[in-house]
Amino acid sequence: MNLVATLGGVMIAVSVLLLVINMVRSLRHGVASGRDPWHAGTLEWATESPPASSNFTAIPIIGARDPLWEPGGVRGRVSGLSVEDRELIVTTVQDAAPDHRTTFPTPSIWPFVSAVAVTAMFLGTVFTPWALVWGSIPIAIAVTTWFWPTREETERHLAIEKQP
Amino acid sequence: VSVRNDTAMREAPGTTLDAAALPSYAFGDRGLMWWGTIGMIAIEGTVFAMTIAAYLYLWSQATVWPLGAPPPELAFGTVNVLILLISMIPNEWAKRAAERYDLRAVRIALVVCVLFGAVLLVIRGFEFAALNVSWDTSAYGSIVWLLLGLHTAHLATDFYDTVVLSVLMCTQRLEGKRYVDVSENAMYWYFVVASWLPIYGIIYWMPRLG
């Protein structure tokens, strides 16, 4: 039994080593594959390689189940979203018809701080149950500051706001 | 040989969707805030259900119940049932005021909700003292503290949410979506109220059934 487990472990180690060798080799030699070396049909292959953090500079409008295979699969692009804020389109649940826009908080240190605070709280509970109480205070501060709007942010949002 | 994909060639030029024409937010089940809140209610409702199941399992295995402790005193928990039920009135008031953008009414209703939450939390403190058992005394003590603690976590969270929202609505320049936040905060409060009824029944009445 131990021998089988050891053999399995060695096999996994060799396969990971192969993967690393392949990565290093591919970084140094050969032609860049481009965004869709497989000629795959789904949308994730349509963005640049490597993808931007926003995935698509302009969100594609889809007209078919396999948008990259079917003519008219990508019918066009979404325009009119803010370039200053993280603004996205929310669609209806079943028909995926464009319904409204939504904005997310700008990138900041606070998501990281809240993760550290949650970790600290749970580590603290190993030593005292009161860590649940005291530990929740920094979490509350971090998640509130995460979303709390700055004056400039609110002004920018209000300038492009459209009431339903 | 070029392996680059020819997506761009399949794209019909000129078809665009002008997102600027879409509204910036939506009330109810069209909005992300509704789905986020419903998702959390589904998760936390499941946690409550599992904890109640654990309580019932321990009860089914015990020869006497509660284990080596008198039943919790009824008064504070029962008072909190009444206050929670009454608190739905200012809560619904805040929700309706938000949905008609009545800022003055939203502010007053939120402050009333904060006061209700503060009273509930103080009485909740007395509830813990009235459990007549410590969390580390027995399996019974652990499970009632877990049940009451989980519900208190939500009571405290929604209280804090409401405080933050009140400060936001009273001091900041407001986007329309903040009224959606007020509306969905009310839905969360309904979950806090509705989940208390079975938990109250379990904590306070199961030990009296024997």
Output the radius of gyration of chain B: 23 Å
Quaternary structure: heterodimer
The SS-based structural class of chain A is alpha+beta
The share of residues in extended strands of chain B comes to: under 5%
What structural class should be given to the helix and strand makeup of chain B?
mainly alpha
Which range best describes the helical content of chain A: under 10%, 10-25%, 25-40%, 40-55%, 55-70% or over 70%? 40-55%
Count the beta strands of chain B: 1
Strand order of the largest sheet of chain A: 1-2
Q: Can you tell me the overall shape of chain A?
A: flat
Which residue ranges of chain B are poorly predicted, with pLDDT under 50 across at least 5 consecutive positions?
1-10
Mean pLDDT of chain A: 92
The radius of gyration over CA of chain A amounts to 24 Å
Q: What's the story with the biggest beta sheet of chain A?
A: 2 strands, antiparallel
Query: What pattern of helices and strands is seen along the backbone of chain B?
Result: HEHHHHH
Q: Residue-averaged pLDDT of chain B, rounded?
A: 92
From the N-terminal CA to the C-terminal CA of chain A, the straight-line distance is 66 Å
Task: Give me the number of helical elements of chain B.
Answer: 6
Q: Helical segment tally of chain A?
A: 4
Please tally the β strands of chain A and state the result.
Answer: 4
